[in-house]
Structure formats: structure tokens, C-alpha cells
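Record pair follows.
FIRST:
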Amino acid sequence: MLGCALAAGAALAVFGSSAAHADLKICNRMSYVVEAAIGIDDKGATATRGWFRIDPAQCRTVAPGAITADRLLLNARALSVYGASPMPQSGSDMLCVAPGNFVIAAARDCRGNQSPAAFTEVKPSTDEGGNSITYLNEASDYDDDQARLAGIQRLLTIAGYDTTPIDGVDGPKTQAALAKFLSDRGLQADASQAANFFETLLAAAQSPSSAGLTWCNDTPHRVMAAVGVDDGKVTTSRGWYRIEPGKCLHPDMPNQARRVLSYAEAVDSGGRAMQQGGKPINWGGPTMLCTRDIKFEFTEQGDCSTRGLAATGFAVVDFAGGAGKTVRFALP
């Protein structure tokens, strides 16, 4: 039923000539850790290869050596930990991808566990070393340093350490949140400069937290979840967040939330809602909020059906007795 892909407000920014001279690299100037797949279209044959994880401010070689092809194509998606933030890929070429690492030789005819995904044609620039480079940018147009800091801010906030706004600016609020995060984990002050620091942040963002809401998926199925946040003025519903089996995830929420609500459902590999014993496998409650099958964020909760939306029952999350709450999804 659902799909979540690229980064919020982001577009693939491509500069310069289309000529490919040496290695093909993808450089990430976004505030999201992304996974990328490439497509090579040559003389009517199209192959795809992925997934390549690329951290903010990181460049990664995705194809070594010179590429002589009619067209180069790209699909990029933010990791599922970011939930509703990413926007859908908008490319017009539907090519096959697969879970995990893959190489697909005939990528316009999906088989088995392969599924179609939208790829965008790219025309890389050439650096001083003769490498072909494609940049992933978002609307904020960060440079490398800003992208890395904004990426740290974003994951700290998801992990329960508020650094908003996510802006790539190193201010007192960001410094305090980072220092608290490092102290809580017994890490040295320079740990944030380590090459594996995004691994540390991602692990924290997918572990139960003493702050905010944590969802944990104790089922063998993928779970798609949505959150409702009532700040006393409006109630915002937002989804979908993908939670893999055995994983946890923190939806990003403002600190001023007066009431938090939650809904989730199990889905199959095609994103279709699952049933058990003839009943849907979902976790919700009596409070009706507006949702839809694809990514959404709504601040108006009235007349859902007349607006072409679904009215979905959310459960109020009880934070009594502590600052954090872990909601675990288990089969009946």
C-alpha cells in the first residue's frame, strides 16, 4: 500500500558534461543518509546495480572505470529511519531493484523479489581527476560541512536529542544536544568526527529511548506506522514510517506535543495490508485522524472522506511515569 523514498524538498542536482572519463561517483550533500542505485542504459539493454549507502558529505564510487553508455540513471532513497520526511522519486524510467545488494542485467523485466522503481537520468560533471560525479542536493543547498552537521542534527533529533531547526548551523542548542548524546553513551568529545559516527547515530535512532516515542516491531512482517501530534492548537497526522522486523524507530516529533497518537499496520512485500484469521493486522485506537496510502502530513482532521482521504483510528500514547514511551507491535 505504501511507499517512502527520497529526501524532503530534495531534487537530484546534476551539473556539467555528460561525458564519463573514470570512476562514477555519487556525492551526498543532503542531511539524510541515503541508499542509491544506478542504471546503465546502452544500445537498448538496461542494467541496474545497488544499493550503495552514502552518508551526508560523503562521496562513493558506484562504478569503477570508464562507462560508455547511452544513458546513466539514478534512484536514491533515504533510510527508513527518516519515516515521512523523504519525498517520492520522480524519474520516468521504471527499472528493477531488489532488497540488499543486487545486480540486475535485464532491469526492465522484474522477476522474483525484484520490484520496479523510478530512476532519473543524470548527466555527471567531471572532477580534476577525471572522475564523473553526480551530486545529491536538497532545497537547503548545503555545502559538505553543512550537510554533515545537518545530518547529525536530524538523527540526534530522531534519537530524542532536540536540535531543531535542522539547518546545518553549529549553535549552542546543537552543541548541548551532541554533548548530552556523547555523554549518555560514554563517548569521547571527538567521537562525532569519526568516520563511523553516522552508524552510532543510526543505532541510537533505532533503539528504545528514554525520550519521546519509540516504535518496536516484534513481528516477522514489515510494519508501516503513522503518528499524530496534538500541540494544543492543531493535530498533525504524519506517515508513513517503515519499521523492519526486529527493529525500532523514533518518529520525529516536536518537544511541545501535548498529546501523541499512534497507528500501525503490518504489510507484505508489495506494501499491501496483511490479515490474520480474516482480520487486519494493525494497532490503533478510537481517535480518527486523516491518512492516505502514500506519504502524507495533514493538519486538518475534519471530513477526511470528502477530501479523498481515509479516516484511521489512532491510539493515544500514554507517557505517564516517564519522558519516553516504547510501543511494541506484536502479533495477536
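SECOND:
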Amino acid sequence: MDLVASTDKSIQWTDGMEDIQALSATLKRRRQINFLKAYVDCGNIRAACTSVGINPASVRQWRENDEWFRKQYLEAEQSYRDLIEQEVHDRAIIGEQVPIVGKVLTPAGLEDQIIGYKTVKSDLLLMFHAKRHIREYRDKYAPDPDDNKPVRESPMVQINVLIDRIAEKATIALPSSNPAQLPPADDDVIDVTPEGASPSLHSDITPEP
């Protein structure tokens, strides 16, 4: 007390609450990270809490009130699903190496020993794997509505297609202007215009007096 009273510098008293809160937040984050690591390995909330010494109620509270933990929890959940998916793929398609046990003659007599290995695949897991990735293998298969949706072209493309169709119809309906492509006439054309007279283009019109 004498030392404080004799100093000529200002003293700012603190209760250390900020440090305590920062330490508490750090410990909480570490507990969350430990839980997430355990959850990725087992995929079970209660088992993960038991392994790291956390109450499951704390995990529920974190998921409701902590945005960072909620996102990390979803990532951990997806990681565990990917782990299951890989394991199903390996057992269904690649298969497991199962030992073959046979009788082997030894100095002590016949004994059961491993004489080889065989690859065993799971038809049941393959069925579920196929249903997971191929819609046609599912029990209640419904075609994807997007498969039958008409392709909507841009207005400019639609106009160009319409112009091409009109031009195609006009080409079919009208004869070609090239004389070489005209069909041959059955009879020769006879000119009946009197000699010295020019044919009138409007012979059906009576001139006025």
C-alpha cells in the first residue's frame, strides 16, 4: 500500500475478467476441436463425448448457439459419411482378402494353417452401393423430371431456325431458275403471232376511242 501511495504514475485497476473470458473461450474451442476429431472417427455423438470427457448436452448447446462449431460439425459429419462410402466401395467392388485355412502336415501332426488368401466381395453392399449412385436400381425409381424438359433456346437461335425452315419450304415449292434444271416440255411451242405484228402484252384490254 505504501508503494502505491508513493508512486507518481497513474494506476489502472483491472479485475482480470477479459483474461478470464479469453481463457475460457480458448478452453472451449479446444474441447470442441477434440470432440470433432473423435466424431470424425466414430460418427456417434455419445461415443465421441465419452472419449473426450464432454457432456452431450454441451454439444447440443454448441450446435444451437455457436456458428463456427455448427459449420465444423457439418464438415465432420460429411467426413464420416465419406469414410463409410469409401468402405462400402472397397468391400463391394475391390473386395477383402480372406485367409484360406487348411490342414498342413507338421512334425506334430495335422494342424490348421493359412494356406492362401481369396478375394471376397459383398453382394449386399454392392446392391446398396448401386442404389446409392444409380437411380434405375432403386426400389421406387422415378425418372428425373429434368431429363424430359425441352431445351429452351435463345430468341435469336429460334429466329434463325424459323428462317431456315421458311427458306427450305420456299426452295421446295418454287421451281429452279436455272433452265438446265427445268423439266423438258412434252411438245414444241408454236408461235401464232401474225407476221409483222408484235404480240400484245395486254390483248384483253380494249383501247379507249
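COMMENT: The chain is about 50% helix and 10% strand.
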